[in-house]
Amino acid sequence: MQGGSERATGEKMVLSFGPQHPATHGTLRIVLELDGESILKATPHAGYLHTGFEKLGEHLDYNQYIVVTDRMNYLSPLSNNFGYVLAVEQLLDIEVPKRCQYIRILMAELSRLADHLLWLGTAALDLGAFSVFLYSFREREKLYSIFEKTTGARLTTSYTRVGGVLRDLYQGYEEDVRQFITNFPKALKETHTLLTRNRIWMDRTKDVGPISGDDAINYGLTGPCLRATGVAHDLRKAEPYSSYEEMTFDVPVGTNGDAYDRYLVRMEEMIQSCGIVTQVLDNMPDGPVNTENNKITLPNKPDAYGHIEGLIHHFKVIMDGHGVEVPKGDHYCATESPNGELGFYIVSDGTGTGYRIRIRPPSFLNFQALPHMLEGGMVSDTVAVLGSLNVIAGELDR
Amino acid sequence: MGLDFGPSGEQDGNIITTTIDKVVNWGRKNSLWPMPFGTACCAIEMMATLASKFDLSRFGSEAIRFSPRQSDLLIVSGRISIKMMPVLKRIYDQMPDPKWVISMGACASCGGVFDTYTLIQGVDQFIPVDVYIPGCPPRPEDLIDAVLQVQEKISSGASPKGVEVIYE
Amino acid sequence: MNEEKEVEEHSKPLVLEKLEAAHADALLAQDESRGTVVVVVRKERVYAVLEYLKTDSELAYNYLVDVTAVDNSRMESELMRFDYARFMVVYQLYSYQGQCRVRVKVPVHENDLSIPSATGLWRGANWLERETYDMFGIHFEGHPDLRRILMPDDFEGHPLRKDYPLQGRGERERFNFDKQNA
């Protein structure tokens, strides 16, 4: 870190890092102004994966839009599905049955594990620890098979519906999930032994890309990146939604806000998520999974095929120009996604299609703070800091 | 590989006859160096394909290269926006001939569910594509299958989509 | 328990009380929707109101969650409410101290799209305002670097305006490979 400016030659070099670089995980781009190896100025660029999600929200009905939310943070689609339908449900002023809330928590926490695992694998891979990548994917594949059995898809799950979920959990889910979370802490320990006290890993991440708590709040950082600075803020605790108030868990915090702390916070969050999953499994209530409101959720199949009322309800929910009609008004709803505060600001004009859907992505604000963390550091830190932020391009650019 | 043993059918002399094309194609087929152009969801499945469970290296294309100048197989996986397309085109142009292109997933192949102002509705409007993979996203098995199809195409001696004649 | 809650709901939230005392002339409307206080603020006064909300020691809305806009041109009722202002710039604020949210809305007319920038208060406002500029064409006065962020620099139009078609105006078929430097 030290000595960069003392050895300054006065000659600036501009290095364009990305958009296609192995450590940018797709489409991020940073223009670095270098003096020797120290970074004078870093300018992040966004927009290489801009897809028009918000515009699409004005053309798709509320249930169709769930498909789009999958493709936003594709490391943990279930969390996005969850956050989005929660916003619509709050706008509709309905509460889903207890069992549905628990299923959603279960899925959100499992997808938090999946998200953090992929982050761990790629962040370690960027710094040269290839085996961690393979270890993470081994665990992720187990999660994929649980997701696939539940939702029918590995990655693009589209599991939630306004007023419920696609279908109840499958027979035997409990054994699968229990088996996974029993073995998972052991698997995580392997990574701990590989990284946590590893000389190289510590040298590459400790005191690299630090940010203070006040600066983090000023920049709007959320999630593990904020908690690594010592601010114990978790929306699951601060504004409990969907029965999170019934769960007991700790909010891990760091002290320095550097890349190493962000690593430790995420590692501990995975253990806490396992605890939440156990509580959900222990207390899973019985009962229906969908709201019993025929204007919002689909009737069951025998009803739709056997009775004219059921058929009409089915038709009204499914057909173009009908859909779930949301009362006029606007609402902002935030959930704690694996990356931080994922907010949906929905403006409804009273029809079945959103008037405006704004997504407040955690990655967008986390990526913005990158220059603050990089400037004054060394060029090789860029990879470590970028990896520790876990910027998801799909969510960043929407 | 299309190897024939010597005219007499004897193997003692270790003589095999073949054509130079076949030998070259055999080599190319089994040492594909993919350049992953991963942008979105499909890139995650591509990573899964390369990782522990599916392990693409079983099929002779494990040497992932992030430099286009060292690669001969471009895997376009994910949505390509109008801001990204020039980058993709440039990477394709930088790859040495002969080169093959896999368009992975619905978004790269035709825009997928995103018929919006910013998304390229199929990269084949701008770069030639040899193999398309349907799916949103395709499963890792699909990507493996696509790589095998590229290998088959190479061993059959067919030119890549983007090149008229591979070699004189 | 229930009675207590009702009393709470009927009493005015602290933020509204304080805003009325300090910035009564800046408020165009106020509302409480689903637990969040919503205030509509005159454009000229928005910086002062935001600053007040951030720095007041009792309120301390020190976290700018989001800045965005809504194009109300297809929603007649909203248009009429605020003198046919086409755009509504929306700020979401959060207070770590009080753990509560407030939404500040600012009507902006189409013939004068400028609005004071909040970058002096929050560094996080920088990209959020750039995105709002990119998508709606709202001009944030005093912003240090007001460029497009998601669309290419040479892009014309503002995609999230209601008169911009979903499939675009043909940009995705024709663009200049040489002009856009990778």
Hey, which two chains have the biggest interface?
A-C, 44 and 39 residues
Name of the CATH first level of chain A: Mainly Alpha
State the total count of DSSP E strands of chain C: 7
Helices and strands of chain C: which structural class?
alpha/beta
**Strand order in space, largest sheet of chain A:** 1-2-3
Proportion in β-strands of chain C: 25-35%
The SSE string of chain C, one letter per element, is HHEEHEHEEEHE
Q: Which ranges of chain C are low-confidence, i.e. pLDDT below 50, for 5 or more consecutive residues?
A: 1-8
Quaternary structure type: heterotrimer
| CATH homologous superfamily grouping of chain C | NADH:ubiquinone oxidoreductase Nqo5 subunit
Rg measurement of chain A, Å: 22 Å
CATH class of chain C: Alpha Beta
Strands of chain A, total number: 8
Q: What do these coordinates show?
A:
Chain A has helices spanning 53-56, 65-70, 77-92, 98-126, 130-151, 173-195, 199-205, 213-219, 224-227, 235-238, 259-283, 301-306, 308-318, 362-368, 370-374, 381-389, 393-397, and strands at 13-17, 29-35, 38-45, 160-161, 164-165, 329-337, 340-348, 354-360. Chain A has 398 residues and is of the alpha+beta class. Chain A has a single domain (53-93, 95-292, 327-397), classed as Cytochrome-c3 Hydrogenase, chain B (Orthogonal Bundle). In chain A, the strands form three sheets. Chain A has a three-stranded antiparallel sheet. A three-stranded antiparallel sheet of chain A has the order 6-7-8. In chain A, helix 3 (77-92) packs antiparallel against helix 4 (98-126) and helix 5 packs antiparallel against helix 6. Chain B has helices at 20-29, 41-50, 85-94, 105-110, 140-155; strands at 4-5, 16-17, 34-38, 73-77, 100-104, 131-133. In chain B, the strands form two sheets. In chain B, strands 3-4-5-6 form a four-stranded parallel sheet. The radius of gyration of chain B is 18 Å and the shape is globular. In chain C, strands 1-2-5-4-3 form a five-stranded mixed sheet. In chain C, strand 1 (27-33) and strand 2 form a beta hairpin. Chain C is globular, with a radius of gyration of 19 Å. Chains in contact: A-B, A-C, B-C.
